[in-house]
DNA sequence: CCATCACCTTGACCTGAATCAAGTCTGGTA
DNA sequence: TACCAGACTTGATTCAGGTCAAGGTGATGG
């Protein structure tokens, strides 16, 4: 997710008035949820600011975070009649909401938009494929390493130097639920990485990768 | 996957000649692979007969099976420039191959096809969401139960009676790699289910669900 | 009709990550 | 400056599932 063309770009002669007509802006406060898993799916969303987490729940409360979304990301493709996931703001977010009906009017007027949506879905599918491998086959160390590397690709300016400064805007609980681990395990492994001089933990949210190369290797199970 | 409309149905005045022009049939023998992960993605595929497994690999050979596909299923959406997965026949399969260029000609002529592809991708996304929860948060028992229930939905005639006969066309190794377990664990849990009178194991590939209701409960972690 | 081989099951044991249980750190409040 | 609450870390212990190691089973061929 992140840093790629917004859906507007697929509308060559992008008539922004029409686009605005079919959508409405909304603001979601930290921790507030705006998509309920299983509810009828009536809207698409585009994240315009802040961050959002997507998740599914088991009846007893176990949670799997299936993705984080930020500015420019598209939400709601993983839904037929009802949403296959819940979504909730992570530190406050602003969204653009597109009712399905309106989106359909848009795709009729701008056929390339439909193609754009498919591309978006494909990209998401490819990511999920990798995430299934992470959840099904990687060790805890590999998962955390993968997570760190993944976060790097969300940076605006991929630092040219050898060390990379990372901001982890989500609490450990979310990282754990994203990686299929417990918070304790995530914490322990970050501590271990620190002891191994792979990272510096400047604060809870701010981490510096001292050896991104090596962390990538660990992420792929090739350490 | 399975038992839903083929892409042809989105072509209202379906000109089969045109469709045939843009595609080629192929046969893949048992165990032969026809998509290599990471290779440039030039084709879409539709499974017309037999079965296929999709998977990703880690460098050391660990494998995650990300899905099984059968008649009518569409392959290749989870790809941008290169395939995000490998694919291999499971007991022999026949496929229809659509080069991207040809597919593009088709979507130009039949715009609703593009929509159909997006729907297909959405459906797949929703399935993957559930599978991530399985891999990240479910116990081995829950995974195997989920697998059995999932297989039911692939049956032609969902048996009206209370017990359901299932055919598992894939070896234990594939089930294990699909569920993120080992073959031993899969085997043990099937034996446990048998001992608990939840299933009968008539042969390696043929299983009878004696209490589908209860198995569903286990699958959702509510036993 | 037996041998073989591939696949599956079962058992014994081990281990990575979960669970349970203290601490510690941080930032907000008074 | 001290207090508090919530989030994080760390340690001790447990346990689900993995690993290692025999057996079983059933389809194929000699």
Automatic annotation (TrEMBL), chains A, B:
Which stretches make up the Cyclic nucleotide-binding domain? 7-79
**Where does the signal peptide begin and end?**
none
GO MF: DNA binding; DNA-binding transcription factor activity
- One Pfam family name from the record? cNMP_binding
Q: Could you give one GO CC term from the UniProt record?
A: cytosol
Give UniProt keywords alphabetically. DNA-binding, Transcription, Transcription regulation
Q: Which InterPro entries match?
A: cNMP-bd_dom (IPR000595), cNMP-bd_dom_sf (IPR018490), Env_Response_Regulators (IPR050397), HTH_CRP (IPR012318), RmlC-like_jellyroll (IPR014710), WH-like_DNA-bd_sf (IPR036388), WH_DNA-bd_sf (IPR036390)
Query: What are the residue boundaries of the HTH crp-type domain, all occurrences included?
Result: 138-213
Q: This chain belongs to which protein, by name?
A: Transcriptional regulator
